[in-house]
Amino acid sequence: MSNEGGVVVHVESDEASARIVIGFLGSQGIEAQISEDDAGDQIPSLESTGGVKVLVPAEDADRARRLLQERGAETEGNG
Question: Which of 4, 10, 24, 67 is the most exposed, having the fewest neighbouring CB atoms within 10 Å of its CB?
Answer without folding.
Answer: 4
